[in-house]
Each structure stands twice: as C-alpha cells, then as structure tokens.
Input
Amino acid sequence: MNRNKNPERDKQISQDLEIFKIITDHLKQDIREFWTRSNFYLLAQAGLFSVFVATFSTSTGVKTTISISIAILGLTIAVFWFIVLRGSIEWLRRWREQVIKLDRELNRFQCYVEVESFAEQKPFLSPSYMTQFLPLIFVITWLAALGLIFIL
Output
C-alpha cells in the first residue's frame, strides 16, 4: 500500500506549512519588537520626567533653561514615540492579515483566524493597540510642564 498517493501535493503542503511558520514567526517577532520599543521609550520618558522634576523644583536661571530643554526633549521624544508605535501597529495589522489569510487556507482549526480577527473587531481590548496611545499622555504632560514653567 502506497501512502504517498500524491507526492507533489504533499510537497506543496509541506512548503505551504513552512511559509505559514515563517509568517507567524515574523508576526511574533514584530510583536516582541513592539513591546521592546514601547518599554524603551517608557523608560526614557520616566527618566526624563524624573530629571525634569528634580531640576524644576529648584529652578532659577540656568536651571530653568535646563528644565525647558528637558521638557522640549521629552515632548519631542513622546511625539516620535507615538509615530513609531502607530507605524508598528500598522505593520502588525498587515502581518495579522497575512496570517489570517494563510490560516484560512491551511489550518482546519483556524485558530489564528479566530484570535487575530478578534483583535481587529475589538481593538480597544488589544493591549498593543491601546499602548500606542500612551505617548499622548506624555505629550500632554510635557505640554503642561512647559506651560507651568512659563506661568511660574
């Protein structure tokens, strides 16, 4: 009895599964990079804010200039952080679409279709989607800090 009735088809299935694995691995890597970037920017913002608070509490002359410089730097980094995270979310969305597309073709269980589609249907329940808005809190905070410097 010959189990390989269609070796060409088996080869194609094997290649398709390998492609599926590569694409899902790429999605996972992009997700890891997203969180690494988010954590890096959050740490940078927290550090800058700590330095700002330390210099602002004793602001006189040169220290006021330093406080303003730190606030402008923090604001610039927060805006850049927001742009980077928005771009990352867009790339994650595109990779999710590809995983869903292949999952529909190759996986009779369609786990990725179900889970990744949920992220598209209810984005506000997705931690990565919501995290992209965290930099806006820092943008507002830095603008308030700059306003406070000029008011006092």
